Amino acid sequence: MRRSAEVLVARLRNRKSRIVIYGIICVVLLVAVPIHWYMFFTLFFDLVPKEGDNLQPHVALGQPLIVGITCMQTMAFFLTMCLAAAVGALINELTTFTKTDLLVSLWDRVQALEETAKQKE
Fold first, then answer.
1. Any idea what DSSP says for residue 48?
2. Which segments within the chain are labelled E, that is strand?
3. How many domains does the chain have?
4. Do residues 86 and 25 touch, judged by C-beta distance below 8 A?
5. Alpha helix ranges (H) inside 1-121
6. Which residue range forms the structural domain that includes residue 100?
């Protein structure tokens, strides 16, 4: 199903809100990614007992901690990929800024010419 020209132009005009949304997503992910990586490394280094520690908690919590570490690493990788996608989308929106302005201004001119042609008839 093809979209109408008005829908496409409305999407091109909505560019500024998409840039703001992608920027907010990038900032949120820039905060979340280091937190997840820090928690991952903290859990990873807590897996090894230090000198003088009681070994019973390490034996009892070792395997569940490995599952938690795996989940944290998976989440950290996923958030990092989401951050890369959001930065890519933001760069795409910012680099097509001029081209979309030209398309929208040409569309406005065509619409104005059609309106004047209808008024003359």
1. S
2. none
3. 1
4. yes
5. 5-13, 15-46, 55-95, 97-120
6. 5-120
